[in-house]
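Let's sit down with a protein and look at its sequence and fold side by side. Which protein we use is up to you, so please pick one and set it down. Label the sequence line and the structure token line clearly, so we can match residues to local backbone shapes. Go ahead whenever you are ready, and we will take it from there:

***
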Amino acid sequence: MILLAPMEGLLDFVLRDILTRVGGVDRCVSEFIRVTHALLPERAFLRIVPELDNSGRTPAGVPVWAQLLGSDPACLAENAARLAEMGAPGIDLNFGCPAKVVNRHGGGAALLQDPELLTQIVGAVRRAVPAHIPVSAKMRLGFNDASRAVECAQAIAAGGANELVVHARTKADAYRPPAYWDRVNDIRLAVAIPVAANGEVWTVDDAHKCRQASGCEMVMLGRGMVVNPGLALSIRHAINPGGTGAEPFDGVSWEALLPLVEAFWSLVCSRLERRQQAGRLKQWLNFMRRHYPQAELAYQELRTVDDPEVVRLWLARVRSV
């Protein structure tokens, strides 16, 4: 199974829509919905997870589990119950965010310093959500170090989580390579629930190494999928060559991706403020230029552009070539 990671400020509902159209992704997790001490209004959930208006699925039909971030078990449970009522196909809990502003308020990876609280949070959410709706969690290997990684995973499982995703770095590691996939294997062997490995999977070879070192069949893709939207399909074909047709699969070409770049731009223009539009396209091109030479050329041409009309003209010209 291949999962699409939540990435605050990057992998939002717009990019989820486009990347799941490419194919290969079995399930997505939304960016975190911050919960403090109140039941959020439905519009707050829909702003982050508009897929709730589509039975909790992207337009391509891929389910999106809604992720909550907070540290108050009762409040998280109340908001999880509301999400379940709104049709969320699954609830995910964020125990991995490394952002200082989040950790300073006791959320995200900071919770890995208190395994007992992890159990309380997961247990409260599990009890609040109907049994048929799965509850998962995403954690890092630890806060400052990985010494309590297994203890934290066992605490999450003890609370009743159905699945666990492990980002194979500590909060202190941030996003610096490498990812310690072998430590995920320690966790997998210590809990009785399915575990997915996440971190530093940029290529098919990385996916093979990650699965081998972690022992996990499930892999979660983040930045690697943003850089190469065909990565999930490539991994799926490599794992099961006969499953995607008899012809060799060489990934998704830039020419095949261009219509989806146009679709991305259309969504950005219809859903985001004008001042954000050009920046969102440049953000994605900046990632994709690591994989596509054509994206490098596009990024350099649009790098200083802020006017959406100039972007429209560029797309029209590229389409006509």
Q: What stands out?
A: The first strand starts at residue 2 and ends at 4. Residues 2-244 form a domain with the TIM Barrel fold (CATH 3.20.20.70).
